[in-house]
Batch of 4 targets.
Target 1
Amino acid sequence: MLSLVLLHIWSISTTETTLTVHVVIADSTRMDDITLEIKEVLRTEGIAHSTIELETPASHCHSHTC
């Protein structure tokens, strides 16, 4: 299961888009695989530049001050 916590998408130029996302995942043993899967989906959507931060439910901050 994946849960998006924070998502920012913006244009760097007329031909480049970038994305930053924080994702809460249930299985921390798959962090590398999940990151690669997300990056592949983003590439197919034309987003080659991304920053992906994965968190577990235990490490996720539920406050707006984090």
Target 2
Amino acid sequence: MKFLMPHSVPSSSSLVSIIFIAVLTLASISIANKFPYIMQHDRSHVAKALAPKYPEVGLPSPKGPTILDPNLKAELVFRGLRYPTSMAFLGPNDIVVTEKDAGTVRRVVNGTELQHALLNVSVATYAHRGMLGIAVAPLTTATSSTNHGNRNTTTYVFLYYTQAQTHTGDDVTEGKQPLGNRLYRYELINNNKLVNPKMLLDLPATPGAIGDGGKVIVGPDNNVYVTIGDVGINGHSTKAQNIQNGSEPDGTSGILRVNQDGQPVVPGILGNKYPLDLYYSYGMWNSFGLAFDPVTRILWDTENGLIFGDEINLVDPGFNSGYNKIDGIWLRGYNIDQAEKHVAPLHPNDLVDFGGKGKYHPPQFTWFRSVAPTGIIFLNSNKMGNLYENDMFVADAINGNIYHFKLNLQRTGLLLPSGPLADGVANSSDPLNQIIFGKGFGGITDLKVSPYDGYLYVLTFDETQGTLYRVVPVNK
């Protein structure tokens, strides 16, 4: 993940090129003073991680998290997870969590972590690689073409992870390249084990170790949606990265969609040739957040810019987010101290549109200075009061903030406060306090609303003290 970038110590033989990277991404030498940590480009190196592994992730407040609405509080559910990345719900007070560098799926029931993991697989762990995403298909929506379209009584759990060749971390300890970024479907049996893995997608995990995406959700159409980034700094040069003379898309830089058996949904949005037929949207550097609006059933995402230009987007089918020509509303190709002056036109003429099937629009909200947006969710309940019902919440990994947004009547844009953020652009000098709902969490990797109790849940990132919170009324 953009913010999951460990320190490494390269050997003298592997000092081929060292570059400085942004909080969520690697970048050019020109931003070295702003982002003082490094990544080795030599793919044959053996990296040795130093503690802390992920210093760019925000630290929690010593006083604990604060919800700015005095009627609400952040309630501790569980603390003790190891670099958790995503969560999903199996039942009331029953949460499954992925642990990035352990390759495990942990289960927290009634505030207690079960002794045995539901699953432990071998994952590559360098930089953004690892166990990254999880989604659960409710029994009422789990259908299978192999079951002749009948309802399936098996609980499907979808996992996205960077699969290692031999054992967890072998890309770090032995320099082995991962097998791929893979989406699997597992079955939950006996309510305590994930079995019968079926690989649904086998996506690139090289040449770089960043920009792997990994968020997974099951949409209201029962299809599975997953994010994947560019997998490296300019790691792939295809039409999906808006390279007009590039090769055909290869499954990177987009939101991909398959049914629960891993088949493309037909007809394809951009075309019907594999893997172009997988793309729901394209032109993204990386993304750690997906959510469908429960009112309109339209998809939204959060995206991380390469150095600058983090985004919140409404994602219609065929949406082109503009990478690698545009991050946020700003043109790429300028030094960081000049980039903010170069705003992209509303209708760029140098983007790939796949014969008019792809459509670009600027983000609904963007930050110039990186905040590393991660989880995005709509509060489809009134458990936090009618004031927040169906509103959007977005988390970040750098500041440990949760942002709150109301939507316009058509629910196609955000109702923003008057002042510097009214145009949907947080320039480098703009304060963010008008949109902050909660703060002091430390790096947040996921937000979810429980379908069982209707509360907002928050997942934070730490080596051994990753934490689950629930936002509830103070009088609960």
Target 3
Amino acid sequence: MQSDKRMVAASQVAYMHLDSFFQEAMEKMGKNASFTFKEIAKRLTGDNLRIYNYIKNELASDIDDWKIVAVHDTNDKNGFSCCVMETPDGAGVVGFRGSEALTSLANGIHDWTEADILLINETCTKQQREVRNFLKRNKELLSRYNELCMTGHSLGGNLAEYATIVSEEYGLDGNITQCVSLDGPGFSGEFLKKYKDKIAHMSPKMKHYRWSFVGNLLNDLPDCEYHYVAVRNRDDDKYNSFNRHDTKYLDYDGDSLVEGEQDTLSRITQKISLGVDHMPSIIGNKIKWIAADLMIVTTAGLDILYDEDGNISVNGVINLIGTILVLTELNITSLIMAEVAAIIVAAIVAYAYEYVYEAVTEFINNVIEGVANMLETAYNWTKQKVREFKDAIQTIYNNIKEWYNSNFNKGYIYAQSYTEIRVDTGKLTKYATKLAGINKKLVSIDDRMDRLYSALNLFDKWNLMAADIRTNGSGLLASCVSYLNDTAREFDAVESTITGAM
């Protein structure tokens, strides 16, 4: 098994542009072409040199002895790139490249739009299809390794997991010993259904590390091992909620990643992405394509807005406006469906509300703590003065929260009016079982309704959609089931404790 650090190193090799070096080796050596980093180190420039130095200095000091034995690069066509590495201990490691920076329209379309956004409601994106081409072309090479590892960062992590899941079709499932996704996005609900058996077959070999909102998007793979890992500031660079996705902020204990916690932004985006993916495909696809249009507009702006000297030009502004109008016209039907948009917003808010509320509360508490620590350092406040400051701010926040609960939280209002509570825990458990049964029936009805879309005309589809969005499996019901069961257990435990003390 390769260590966490070495898998991170392999994921970073995938970001290097090595195709020209490999083509050169093929001209000299034919189909058995290969080269070590020691052979090309002095010829590396730009991003290739930066990544090489990062790997050698922080991740794998023996990188010079790593051998590149295959490169599959269709980056210009669909954004896909991966390479096969052979480590000094004889393991084969496939590194899949993640989404590249939004510095060109091509990256925006191939990576962020067609590969990332289009994961929603899809069972096979263009880059996942290219994974199959890679496995088919290189299965003889890959089958030579008794220890074969798959890894990738960001989108590359998703592609590594995809390759592992479908590897049985290419006779490689027995060779694969390890798959590590490094903060890669998840998969659609449709994908989980289609590949249920293949996922179950390979999940014991799969591990998923996550530390930013990217690694929390969409659905987790059932029975796959998931870990939140810690990040830390660098001497010359500090992380935030958006840039923490970069592997350079990862924290290590030796060669292993340090356990961490889910951050606030991840909690919010995770629930929103699941809400969109769990909608009927007719709605989820509308959101997907609107997001895709916005992504293209954004990246087109990067290409169009600036002149050759890097300055915003009048022509650039005019061209950008024209691009927005053209792209809007291409998907005008998506943007005039006000009723659908209203349903979408309501569904997302309903799905994510309780998690957002908790996240905001945690965020406020963290801000109070951070400001207090800053004042302590800046003004040499005593511990007592810091405590008084924190208590004062916390009191203000608690008063606001109290006002909200007293006016809008029905459960809180009821609890204030009825201070004595009598609980029949048997009934709680019984209600939980009934609710779970209802939720199971809702899922079954929703599946049957989804199959009706193709058989109906446009008018009937709208009526079906209005009913369908209300009959999906309810996250709220699932939460109620858990709450009822937990409440019953806790009251039973309290009763046992009190009875035992009497």
Target 4
Amino acid sequence: MALPRMTVITLGIANLARATGFYSTLFRPRPSRNTKCPLHTAARRLLSLRPLEKLAEDIAQNTPLPAA
């Protein structure tokens, strides 16, 4: 049986421009039409950078509330 593999890792970033520059020096930037979510290739994985507040909104919309 094949084990599931991570293919995309998303990081919440406070300063997107600064983080994009930093990760571009470590990993190969990947062309993307979405400039609000830069992608980088790292060891056959995608590293996605999202503004922290946008990532928090995504998590809040898709996370079920715990039972009381």
